[in-house]
Amino acid sequence: MSKTFSFRLSSAFALTTAVALAALVVAPGAAHAQFPDRPVTLIVPWDAGGSTDQTARVLAKAAEKHLGQPIVVVNKPGAATVLGMTELAAAKPDGYTVGTLSSSSYLIPLAGRQVQYDVEKNFSYVSYYGDNLIGTVVPAAAPWKTLKDLIDDGKKNPGKIKFGTGGVGTTQHLTIEGLMVDTGAKFIHIPQKGSAGSVPALLGNHVDFLSETSVWAPFVEKGEMRLLAVTTPSRSPRFPDAPTMNELGFKTLRSVQGIIGPAGIPEAERSKLESAFRAALTDETFKQTMDRLAMVVVDMPGKEFDALIKDEIVRARSLLAQIKQ
Predict the structure, then answer these.
(1) CB atoms near residue 149 (< 10 Å)
(2) Residues 305-321 pLDDT 10s
(3) Cα(first)–Cα(last) distance of the chain, in Å?
(4) Distance, CA of 239 to CA of 162 (rounded, Å)
(5) Whose CA is closest to 258, among 130, 171, 132?
(6) C-alpha to C-alpha distances, 89 to 98, 101, 117, 138, 262, nearest whole angstrom
(7) Tens of pLDDT, residues 112-164
(8) Strands 187-191, 161-165: pairing kind
(9) Which of 130, 176, 203, 258 is 20 to 30 A removed from 299 (C-alpha atoms)?
């Protein structure tokens, strides 16, 4: 073999090796820039057909247009979101698995149930998308025209007025517990078997008022019930005459709806997911779905969403401690 040929062969081998090494160096960056290059899974820890499932599916379909890949919704119901949240926390943090967060997911462990996740540590926060509309509702024939009327009666007649909610430790329940702490009124909690059972309890005079999600909306619109106040930060577009509890001077918990992922999603991927889901909030079908369910669209970035949940947990922990006293 001539020296010239040997030199050319060595040079070619060196060039090939250099190209291969360069490919190894840039490959992570190239893959990083291509995210997502396959479908994203969205875990909904509730049964199909509920309000979270309905809104999440429409939101996901709208977000696909901005993300450039399909978003496949997978229902993982069980133990009031615990099963789905556990699976989401354990997922690979590459941005290809996200899920929905509802208030139940952090109220349950605060109430004492053992779970295999920590909402403050085991998740990446992508974006908020809305509030469930929780309202304080009385029968149309009830003597209370305003929330102040109800509170005043609860102070004058402690322990005589009964209220219904979807269950102990729910946002609905803690809303009235907070109201009692703030005002000194005393009401008796009569928990129902989920929100669906609350309306029959009120119509059947088993309770005097409800603190409940928007299962009451059709009855308020038909004039059979009266809405005294809502817990959302701003007034409901669907019920603009009902004041918020905040404007009446009371701090309340929020019934949240947001998108999260397992902890450790790289910021570039998390940010791209956030942009897609926030852009989807303007989709007309999504807005119509939220309005039909009397839910309020809220555009909030992941960092603010994370901070909000930490504040909600502090408030809820305090209220639960007072209930146990």
Answers:
(1) 14
(2) 999 999 999 999 988 88
(3) 92
(4) 24
(5) 130
(6) 9, 12, 6, 40, 5
(7) 889 999 999 999 999 999 999 999 999 999 999 999 999 999 999 999 999 99
(8) parallel
(9) 176
